[in-house]
Amino acid sequence: MRPPGRSSAIGAVSTVKPAPTAVPAARSAPAEGPLARWRPRAASATVWYLRLMALLNLVAVLAVPFRDQVQEHNEGDFFTPYLLTAGLTTVLLSLFLAVAMRRRKRAAWIFNAVVSGLFSVLYVLLMVVPGGAFADHPLNYVSTVLTVGFFLALLVGRREFTSKGDRSNPKTGVATFVGGLVVGGVVGAVLVQLTNTIHGAGFGVRFGYAVARMVTVTPSGRLADQIAVPTWVNAGINAMGAVLFLLVMYLAFRSPRGQELLSGEDERRLRELLDRQGERDSLGYFALRRDKAVIFSPSGKSAVAYRVLGGVSLASGDPIGDPEAWPGAIEAWLEEAREHAWVPAVMGASEEAGVIYARHGLDALELGDEAIVEIDEFSLDGRAMRVVRQAYNRVKRAGYTVRIRRHEAIPDGEMAELLDKADHWRDGQTERGFSMALGRLGDPDDGRCVMLECHDGDGELRALLSFVPWGANGLSLDLMRRDRDSENGLMEFMVIELLQRAPEVELERVSLNFAMFRSVFERGSRLGAGPVLRLWRSVLGFFSRWWQIESLYRANAKYRPIWEPRYLLFEKSSEIPRIGIASARAEGFITAPSLPALFRRRHTPLVPQGRSGGGAAAERNG
Predict the structure, then answer these.
(1) Side-chain half-sphere CA neighbours of 258 within 13 A
(2) Which among 28-32, 88-92, 531-535 has the top mean pLDDT?
(3) Which domain holds residue 105?
(4) Is residue 564 within a helix (H) or strand (E), and if so which, with residue range?
(5) What is the C-alpha separation between 234 and 21, in angstroms, rounded?
(6) Domain-ending residue, one of 513, 538, 565
(7) Is residue 86 a part of any domain in this protein?
(8) Is residue 454 within a helix (H) or strand (E), and if so which, with residue range?
(9) Which of 348, 389, 382 is nearest to 499 (CA)?
């Protein structure tokens, strides 16, 4: 069992630094070649160049005099550096490329190398043409030096850009770009036709004007004598171009979506690890969710379960298996994240695992505490348990009873009825759960799970609790469902029944709900709490009106449990908002609306053999 360590700071970032021995040998080995030490610098220089171009283009969009100068230098005998066009779309393009290059995306490097290489060759040829007018303008030399310098930096830093993208990215991006230009050009041509105050412009001229304006804020002045439209038309065409470039850049440089699910062989190997080391982590069994992928250590003695959402490789809980093999699994997971430019993060890691992750470069942020009840330490006696005892006795006098069975002991027909009840009692359409929910109920492979069925005095089923195994003698709460018209305190009654009848399932400990920011509520209510802590507690109390933050802490505190801290692990603080969005998507707090989701069954029907088709995430917290 993991050590019951405590954290003394709430929301504090861990100061544990990665140990030198944790760095993979392949990354710590000195690079070969005389340009090795310049590669990272050259790669960083390309990123800063793109950021500078984005800034200059933004200034050109907002400042009319500067925009006019840029456009003047892009016509006639002048030209500007690579990506300086005074266009809003170029602002977005430069920003997207800068972000992709900072993440060392190979696709972004190829795009910049090809385009800037063509511009470099063209600029050099224009400057060396005998008798040409381009060499007479000093600004052209500056543009040539900057463009060629950017291209050379790309060549020097080539080996730094190793992050893979989705194979469909180039085709999808090109198709979207061409299709978007055609659609935007046609729409823009129609708008110009309806609002143009100068007659005589043909469709080709209008179409070219619209396409040009989608790329830059102001097209060539040569069209001024043929097209004159209101400002809102130009702004609308510019906005279409901005949206198109946002979409193209997203599709062209997004990371692979990581849709690989848990295979049958992976699940078999995970179950073997859980049979040997499952008692270490109460969340270990949730690694068997089939919407997660898994990566094993080279020895096969440990594994990390994760899911990729929005370019974030989100692992959950502790690694599965032998702690001595955890570093191998963590290194393999981090290497895969670097290979695909995914942001690595871990939700709900224990303190023991957090220390190992910290040695591999991740920092820790305390999320809250998990409530664990040790059977031999639980009792309803004493003044502190008086309220719980009274509530338990009240429900019991009302005639409610609890039946406890392993899932494998429930006949298929009865299990199907339980699934129907669970679906009927579900609170809302949004499914929640990732790190602390199994995502299915009644699957034949989960026969060791425990079901609690609560019936009223008339024998009517009123509530369900389902627990997953936690080693040989522990259970971890997975699902809570009840009839909203049933007696208050029904869940507490069922939990206490389980604790008191623990010998029926050879039970020694139970993991209940997770309480976010538990220490804030506990310490913030004490005498002498500081103003910052009291303010933080008030803010959390305010948001508890919509999310079960304080209520979950209160609901678990009544059992007087052992509180085990759980952590969010990450590489960079700047990635926390992105990780937070991915976590909210994984847990079901952010969902994309769709008709199939509105009519989807919560649980899949039972199958007599094999495993069911999965389903959406289960609700650990009801």
Answers:
(1) 28
(2) 88-92
(3) 36-245
(4) strand 562-570
(5) 59
(6) 565
(7) yes
(8) strand 450-455
(9) 389
Q: Coil, strand or helix: which one is 84?
A: coil
Q: Domain tally for the chain? A: 2
- Neighbouring-strand partners of residue 396: none
99 has pLDDT over 80: yes
In this predicted structure, the answer to whether residue 152 has a pLDDT above a threshold of 90 is yes
User: Model-level pTM?
Assistant: 0.69
CATH of the domain at 400: 3.40.630.30
Tokens of 590: 């952010």
Q: Which residues pair with 345 in a beta bridge?
A: 314, 570
Q: Are residues 77 and 210 in the same domain?
A: yes
CA distances, 303 to each of 264, 314, 357, 550 (Å): 15, 14, 13, 34
Q: Using CB atoms within 10 A of its CB, is residue 268 exposed (0-12), middle (13-18) or buried (19+)?
A: exposed
Tell me if 467 sits within 8 A of 448, measured CB to CB. Answer: no
Q: Mind giving me the DSSP string for 4-15?
A: ----S-SSPBP-
Between CA 204 and CA 202 the distance in angstroms is 5
Cβ atoms of 78 and 137 closer than 8 Å: yes
| CA-based radius of gyration for the chain | 30
Which residue, 245, 266, 295, sits at the end of a domain? 245
Please report the pLDDT score of residue 369 as a whole number: 87
Name the residue among 310, 185, 183 with its Cα closest to residue 590. Answer: 310
Confirm whether 261 is domain-assigned: no
Say if residues 464 and 481 touch (Cβ distance below 8 Å): yes
pLDDT tens digits for range 290-313:
888 999 999 999 999 999 887 899
- Within a domain: 124: yes
Q: Is residue 303 part of a domain?
A: no
Question: Tokens 């809003």 belong to which residue?
Answer: 88
What is the average per-residue pLDDT within 453-468? 93
Which residues share a beta bridge with 305?
A: 294
Q: At what angle do helices 203-215 and 88-102 cross, to 10 degrees?
A: 40
Please tell me the predicted confidence (pLDDT) of residue 599.
Answer: 43
Q: Tokens 């609901």, residue?
A: 555
pLDDT of residue 318 exceeding 60, the answer is yes
List the alpha helices (DSSP H) in 501-549. Answer: 518-524, 531-543
Nearest to 510 by CA among 463, 551, 477: 477
Q: Residue 285 carries which side chain, given as an amino acid letter?
A: Y
Can you say whether residue 592 is alpha, beta or left, with left for phi > 0 and alpha for psi between -120 and 50 degrees?
beta
Chain centroid, CA 199 distance in Å: 53
pLDDT tens digits, one per residue of 246-283? 787 777 666 555 555 788 899 999 999 999 998 999 99
What phi, psi does 502 have (nearest 5°)?
-55, -35
Cβ contacts of residue 449 below 8 Å, gap of 6+? 406, 407, 438, 466, 467, 468, 469, 478
Q: What percent of the chain shows pLDDT beyond 70?
A: 77
Determine which helix (DSSP H) or strand (DSSP E) holds 99, and give its type and residue range. Answer: helix 88-102
Q: Are 477 and 485 in contact (CB under 8 A)?
A: no
Mean pLDDT, the chain, rounded, equals 80
Question: CA of 5: how far to CAs of 8, 138, 491, 565, 568, in Å?
Answer: 10, 67, 29, 8, 16
Query: What are the counts of helices (DSSP H) followed by strands (DSSP E) for the chain?
Result: 20, 12
Pairing of strands 312-316, 293-296: unpaired
